[in-house]
Design goal:
mainly alpha; Arc Repressor Mutant, subunit A; 10 helices
């Protein structure tokens, strides 16, 4: 391995350490309370080194949001590729949504805020492109399943993109609205049961009969 390749590998390794440290700090303290200095300390790096990789806290947090969106899109595509019925795929989407929420709820919430119209206007072209790409992958995979269900005369004959929007918006809405209840009672899980209920309603609404 040459010097350049070794340096690139070391750079990627260090970036992964920073991301891991940031996820831990953000999850424990929340976005507003977390500082770049604390993230640097968690990663056992100097603050100066941290700024070589991310220019500020907002950029680092946005990067984590894109990472979870990429992960979510990949898991959805895995469901689409499975040899199961469209109804089973809708149920698997529910499981994926719950798993991703439990993986890191705070970053997922930030992702949904990023996808709001006003927030998107404040993103750089590069970041906006990544959000658009992975959102398109996730949404497009759901659209494909809904379209299959319509063609098989299992789902109601409505525009597949509109039905996929209902499913995606329900996910975002449940996470943003119901998760706020943790401020009142952080010992109770509100999101999981509410998502299950939402999917029962959505599944019934999708069926023709």
């Amino acid at each position: 391995m040459g010097i350049y390749e070794r340096k690139q590998r070391e750079k990627e390794y260090r970036k992964k350490e920073i991301i891991s440290a940031a996820r831990k700090v953000f999850s424990n303290k929340g976005y507003n309370a977390a500082t770049m200095e604390e993230i640097a300390s968690e990663a056992e790096l100097s603050p100066g080194t941290l700024y070589l990789y991310f220019k500020n806290k907002e950029e680092l947090h946005t990067f984590l949001s894109i990472e979870i969106l990429k992960y979510l899109a990949g898991e959805i595509q895995k469901v689409v590729a499975r040899d199961i019925s469209v109804l089973e795929k809708i149920e698997r989407f529910r499981d994926v949504f719950i798993d991703v929420y439990e993986y890191d709820s705070s970053i997922l919430i930030n992702l949904f805020h990023l996808q709001s119209g006003e927030t998107l206007q404040n993103l750089s072209d590069e970041v906006l492109k990544q959000v658009t790409t992975f959102s398109g992958m996730a949404h497009g995979a759901i659209v494909d399943v809904v379209r299959q269900g319509i063609e098989q005369e299992i789902f109601i004959d409505e525009h597949p993109a509109a039905l996929a929007d209902v499913l995606w918006a329900s996910y975002a809405g449940v996470v943003l609205w119901v998760d706020s209840k943790r401020l009142l009672n952080d010992q109770k899980d509100f999101v999981r049961p509410t998502l299950k209920t939402a999917f029962k309603i959505i599944s019934k609404g999708l069926k023709r009969n």
